[in-house]
Structures are given as structure tokens and as C-alpha cells.
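Lecture notes, unit on protein representations.

Consider one protein chain, 257 amino acids long.
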Amino acid sequence: MPSASRALQGRTVMITGASSGIGAAAARLFSEEGAAVVLMARRKDRLEELAEEIRGGRGRALAVPGDVRKPEDVREVVTRAVEEFGSLDAAFNNAGTGTFGSALHELDEDAYDTAMDVNVRGVWNCMRQQIPVMLRQGRGGSIVNTSSVAGHSATGATAPYVAAKHAVLGLTRAAASEYGYSGIRVNALTVGATRTALLEPYTDGTPETEGRLTRRAVQKRLADPAEVAQAALWLCGDRASFVTGGAIAVDGGWSAV
């Protein structure tokens, strides 16, 4: 059973998309809960600032800039995690991007390729590097992938994003099935509209614009990134020891109606 102290004490957790939003909130929370955090994102400046902030609070953090679309970048992050902290015990594969506002027939190939490469290939690249390390360590592990409410429902004018987030759930379930024997748990978060940079082009902060994004959610508001991070923390820790292959809704009740 987990100790009564911090949920991730003594563990190393890799977080992608860590320079802002949900990833940055998770980095701060996981560090507070005892983890050494290995931060990956393309924004080197923001990533290093966050790592310095965590270390200034007497946490352990390593910033390794990189692009989840590039296998060599992901390999470098995983290698550095083990070299610096001695293990890789959990991962929050959170990096993602969206395609909003255009009908399927009006989207160009670049928009489709970007959505699939970041959201799907990025998760695949990460798990391909994380799982072998966890297998070698021989004590299991936990992987959490960020999907979306768009992973189980079409949300309109977002075809590549919807397809990609459906695929994340498929990868998650396949990995949970393949590696459950080794004690590696793999789950996904289906996240609703969250107050991050991804939504900034689509809301001016007024109740009217935010209402359009949250009209289906029971709670009628955007999530705070820290609320999503709490769900990821639970899945990464021992309190979720019998949870694998799951798609955990963090959507303010969007999927309840």
C-alpha cells in the first residue's frame, strides 16, 4: 500500500509538453509529491525556467528540450533521465496540438500531418522508449497519455484532432494489454476544455466565448491545468494500482450527458 507521505516519493517521472499548461502544472505537483521530474518540450527557455523554479524549491528537475515527433529526441530524454536519477518509474505523455475551426475538406495535408505526428506518433515514440527501460528495471511502472473528450466523441470542425485523440486511446489500451504482465500500467486522461495556451486563440476570456467551449460540461467552466495534473498524479502513483487500460474523464461532466 502507498505510504502516508508523498505519493511519488523517490520516483522519476518523465513529462512531455512540460513547458506550459497541464505539463507545467504536473511538473510542479509531481515534484511536490516527491518525484524527480524530467521535463521535455520544444521551448528551451520556458523549460529551463521551470526546472530552475522546481530546484529552487528544493525539488529535483532535469530539463531536456526536444520534439516528441523525433525518436532521437525522445531517446535522449529517457537516457538522460536514467543517467541523472537512476530510473524511470512513470511517464506523463502530455504533449499535444490541435486543429480547430476548419471543415474536414478544407484542411490541408500539413494540418492533418501535424495533428497526427504530435498527438499520436509522439505518444508512440515515447512509449517505445519508456517501456523497455521499465521492463529492464523489472518493477513495473505507470504511463499516462493525454487524450481528450474528442477521443470518444466528434466535437466539430476538428477532424484530424478527433482522429488523433481516438488513436491515443487505442495505443493506450493496446499497451496496457501487452505489458500488464510486467506490472506496467498504461492509462489515458480524456480531458475537457482547459485554460491553456492551446485554447487562447478561441477565447477572449469573456463568459460568452468560454460558454461556447463549456456548454456541454455539467460544471459549465474551463478546467484549471492543476486539476488535470491531479488526475495524472493519481494514475502515476500506487493509489491507482488496479487501474490500467482506462480512459479517465477529467472533463467537468462533459461526457456525462
